[in-house]
Specification:
Blueprint: H1 2-12, E1 16-24, H2 37-48, E2 55-64, E3 67-75, H3 87-99, E4 104-109, E5 113-121
């Protein structure tokens, strides 16, 4: 995920502000491979790439006692309305259902931003 973000920093240069806030109490805790990447890719694809002005992506990742909290937010230039997840988000949702029963996933689309909030028990 970090490599992908760095690649996008190079691509968008000064047009993009990326804020990453992490708190991890155990670096050895494992998570399913590439589980978070579709959320990050979507933030760039549907937020930054479609924006006509300077843009931002905010990522918050907190791992405490086996509980993972992940939030990513990006701007959107579309009206608030019914949100229909695409195939990528549908696939991630299915993976979450299979690998992490009891997870919490919230997709919020407002007039000026889109936010994904997720909570997983990794223990």
């Amino acid at each position: 995920m970090e490599d992908y973000i760095e690649l996008q920093r190079i691509r968008f240069e000064d047009k993009l502000i990326i804020t990453i806030d992490t708190e991890i109490d155990d670096e050895q805790t494992k998570i399913a491979p590439l589980l978070l990447l579709p959320f990050v890719e979507n933030a760039f694809k549907h937020g930054v790439s479609e924006s006509l002005s300077d843009s931002y992506i905010r990522i918050r990742l907190n791992l405490t006692k086996g509980e993972l909290f992940f939030v990513i937010e990006n701007p959107v230039d579309t009206e608030t309305g019914q949100f229909e997840p695409g195939i990528g988000l549908s696939n991630v949702t299915r993976r979450l259902d299979l690998l992490y029963p009891g997870h919490r996933l919230e997709l919020i689309k407002e007039q000026h931003f889109f936010r994904v909030s997720m909570q997983l028990n990794l223990s």
